[in-house]
Task: structure prediction
Amino acid sequence: MAGSLLSLEFDRSSVTRVRHLVMVSAQEAGLKGVILEDFVLAVHEAVTNAVRYGSPPRGIAMWREAGVLVAEITDKGPGIPDEALEREETTTRFGFGGRGLWLMNRLADLVVRTGAEGTTIRLSVALP
Result:
């Protein structure tokens, strides 16, 4: 990983700390303004989904490569159901939940690898 910025395991008790570290790392990489806020929100959605639906160990890594900032969030959970991956709209307008992947896909470039052995969410954004 060229330009490694962050690498750690996390759990429910460290979600706030992880969000702060992502913010600081993204700022150090050169993100600012709305792009920074959007990227941090997208990563936060992936982290909270890993805590909510995945199983330990859960990890996050961030790095720079070829003008891009990348965050990769992993867990060893049961995988994301196909219907959640195929959804193009949020589940309900006012309900809770069901927006994480939809939001991530709109705030950053999203790649999902998922299956019975766990999930990897890779989010990236161009650096200024």
